[in-house]
Design brief:
Blueprint (H helix, E strand, L loop, with lengths): L9 H23 L2 E9 L2 E9 L5 H16 L7 H6 L6 E2 L2 H16 L9 H7 L11 H8 L7 E4 L2 E4 L11 H14 L4 E8 L3 E6 L7 E6 L8 E7 L4 E6 L4 E4 L2 E4 L2 E2 L4 E2 L6 E6 L2 H14 L1 H10 L3 E5 L5 E3 L7 E3 L5
Antiparallel strand pairs: 1-2, 2-6, 3-5, 4-5, 6-7, 7-10, 8-9, 9-18, 10-15, 11-12, 13-14, 15-16, 16-17
Helix pairs in contact: 2-7, 4-8, 7-8, 8-9
């Protein structure tokens, strides 16, 4: 026979268990609330700002460390142990590179071909000759410029799988895509951190990555510089979802003036001199961090008409600002961009 006599302590026990469960549940919910960590760092010769939402520890310092490692291990042409420096010192000998770097090099070569050489990873010596953004920016001697230009051309880079060979005298420089590689690698890092829920990393204002959804559900707002504004006002803003990337290229970023002429840092591979297209600034939005950086450079060199044709090949969106301030954009870019109130 089952004893159905009531336990006089049962109600109190049940209440205690429920209360404890409620407290534990509240604690779990409270603990799951992401906290925002922000930091400013220096990497890849630029200021890096980070905003990371996480339920775990602050990892902003690890992002800067990762970028510096990418630069020292892969991209630096001044550090002898980096892969790029070793390739350049190989004197035409075939070298094998790590899988991940080989993958990026393959993308570079494909984009160089698709852009008819507007993106060229062999311009390093010519870039350093101009030294725009360096300590001695100047118009180089024409004869010296022609000599160095003769050693450039993406066709002089031969990539087969992980093996790379440069023609004699040719050197490799991934500065035009370095921040894009950084964005791609940071995204890969964030995806492996289960406690990180969202974040934005801005590499010098020219390359921005977004990750996840902000706690309030709003979009990530990225301000776009007006290339000819002297008052510090922004042209407008681009609203991004997590997992989207933005890159800009413009003649206002690094330049010097001589005899009323602006000499900027984005060189045309065909001439070895600052590109003279019909645009002063280009903004690209993609779902690939590497591509956004590479496409912004190529599209600036090509100009808005050929640039838009290139964007179609990569399912990317773009905004082009000409020297008079006229804006032209792809149809898909209209969903991202809105003018600032001062521009309306």
């Amino acid at each position: 026979e089952i004893n159905r006599k009531a336990n006089p302590y049962g109600k109190f026990l049940l209440a205690a268990v429920c209360a404890a469960g409620t407290i534990a549940l509240c604690q779990a919910v409270y603990a799951a609330e992401p906290e925002l960590y922000t930091a400013t760092d220096l990497a890849m010769d630029t200021v890096v700002t980070e905003s990371i939402y996480t339920t775990g520890e602050d990892v902003t310092g690890e992002i800067g460390t990762l970028l510096r490692k990418i630069e020292s291990d892969w991209l630096s042409w001044t550090q002898e142990d980096s892969m790029i420096a070793r390739i350049n010192a190989s004197e035409g000998q075939t070298m094998e590179v790590p899988d991940q770097l080989a993958s990026y090099l393959e993308k570079v070569m494909q984009l160089s071909e698709n852009s008819n050489g507007a993106l060229d990873p062999t311009l390093g010596k010519v870039i350093r000759l101009w030294d725009i953004g360096g300590e001695n920016p100047h118009i180089p001697d024409e004869y010296e410029l022609k000599q160095l230009l003769a050693l450039t051309g993406y066709e002089k880079v031969h990539l087969e799988g992980k093996k790379i060979t440069l023609d004699e005298g040719c050197t490799l420089d991934l500065g035009a895509v370095g921040k894009g590689i950084g964005c791609a690698e940071i995204t890969d890092y964030l995806q492996k951190q289960q406690k990180i829920t969202a974040g934005l990393v801005n590499l010098g204002g020219s390359s921005v990555l977004t990750y996840g959804t902000k706690p309030d559900g709003s979009k990530w707002q990225i301000a776009i510089t007006d290339p000819r504004d002297t008052e510090g006002d922004y042209l407008g803003a681009v609203a991004l979802d997590g997992g989207e990337f933005l890159s800009t290229s413009g003649d206002y970023e690094k330049y010097f003036m001589e005899d009323g002429v602006r000499y900027h840092h984005i060189l045309d591979p065909r001439t070895g001199s600052p590109a003279h297209s019909d645009v002063a600034g280009v903004t690209i939005v993609t779902k690939d961090g590497f591509l956004s950086d590479a496409l912004s450079t190529a599209c600036f060199v090509l100009g808005q008409e050929e640039g838009q044709q290139l964007l179609e090949k990569y399912d990317a969106e773009g905004l082009f600002i000409d020297h008079e301030g006229t804006i032209t954009m792809t149809e898909g870019m209209r969903q991202y961009f809105h003018l600032s109130n001062s521009q309306k």
